[in-house]
Design brief:
- The protein is an alpha/beta fold.
- The protein folds into 2 domains: about 1-45, no CATH class; about 60-290, TIM Barrel (Alpha-Beta Barrel).
- It is about 35% helix and about 20% strand.
- It contains 10 helices and 11 strands.
- It has an 8-stranded parallel beta barrel with strand order 3-4-6-7-8-9-10-11, surrounded by 6 helices.
- Helix 2 packs parallel to helix 4 (about 150-160).
- It starts with a helix and ends in an 8-residue tail after the last helix.
- The model is unreliable at about 1-45 (pLDDT under 50).
């Protein structure tokens, strides 16, 4: 009996190992995505990817949260964006010295907090000791702590907003992706940034929409060439003065999405909605254009 049990255990181990190998060689197409956990162990994540660019004709993304009415990249700005009914909330993500992820646009903490120095030189605990000390409506903002990536995603999830995540400075992409998977929003988010960062994301996930950011005077054709190498679900996020209707058409003809930033007046927004852009990044428009209020608290 002992020998039979031993043989069965060996057989089960062989079948288990073979199944894991085959799953990597022949990946499934039913929403299953393999990922690497922070400790280096392989983990399996079931994701249902949503067609986020279907439905609404007007998709506004709050730039660094509702930064026209709260300090940029603050929890207050994210909360206010959710309550105002933005389709998406944009933020910037950088990595701390000990592998944490925080929401801040600049490479340093100098401009927006009471600290100084590079984010990458701070531990997460040290970053959390700083306070935001500049920005719109600072005096009426109660929570002035720098939000973590996890806190931002939690707010997006609570209000049903699409996270639009711009990569600033990241070293550990496995951990970065793991935070997104753990939030439950991997099937309903967008990742933006420089092309090298997007290739790192694509190496770990083939479905999340990725947008390369275009800057003046870089032509849209250069962005199109860059993003062509990342497979499907790709786009260009461009500063709007360079985007005319023929640019949107050219990108869409190549199955490339087009987002524009940052538009803060109604007439310009209406023009780009007419062009058929996939989303508009703004600091304040929805409250004035659509008077939207989100009741998901």
């Amino acid at each position: 009996m002992y020998k039979i049990r031993k043989k069965l255990l060996i057989l089960m181990a062989i079948l288990f190992a073979a199944g894991n190998v085959l799953s990597w060689i022949f990946p499934r197409d039913d929403g299953y995505t393999p990922s690497v956990a922070a400790g280096g162990e392989t983990a399996s994540v079931e994701i249902s990817y949503e067609p986020i660019f279907e439905g609404a004709a007007e998709r506004f993304v709050a730039h660094r949260g509702y930064s026209g009415y709260a300090p940029e990249n603050s929890a207050a700005a994210f909360e206010l964006a959710g309550k105002m009914g933005f389709w998406g909330i944009e933020t910037d993500i950088s990595e701390t010295s000990d592998g944490g992820f925080v929401c801040m646009h600049d490479e340093t903490v100098d401009r927006t907090t009471d600290g100084d120095g590079k984010i990458g030189d701070y531990t997460l605990a040290a970053i959390e000791e700083l306070s935001i000390d500049s920005g719109n409506y600072l005096r009426t903002t109660q929570n002035r702590k720098i939000p973590t990536f996890e806190e931002y995603l939690s707010i997006c999830g609570r209000y049903g907003c699409v996270p639009v995540i711009e990569i600033k400075t990241i070293k550990n992409y496995d951990s970065f992706m793991e935070v997104i998977y753990n939030s439950g929003l991997a099937g309903r988010c967008i990742i933006t940034g420089p092309i090298d960062a997007l290739k790192e994301v694509r190496a770990r996930n083939g479905e999340i929409p990725v947008f390369v950011i275009g800057y003046y005077p870089e032509p849209y054709s250069q962005c199109l060439e860059q993003i062509a190498g990342v497979g499907e679900n790709r786009g260009v996020l461009y500063n709007y003065p360079q985007v005319e209707d023929y640019v949107v058409t050219a990108l869409h003809n190549q199955n490339v999405y087009c987002g524009v930033w940052s538009i803060d007046d109604e007439a310009t927004a209406e023009k780009y909605i007419g062009y058929g852009v996939d989303f508009i990044v703004t600091n304040e428009l929805p409250a004035r254009l659509n008077h939207m209020v989100n009741t998901n608290d």
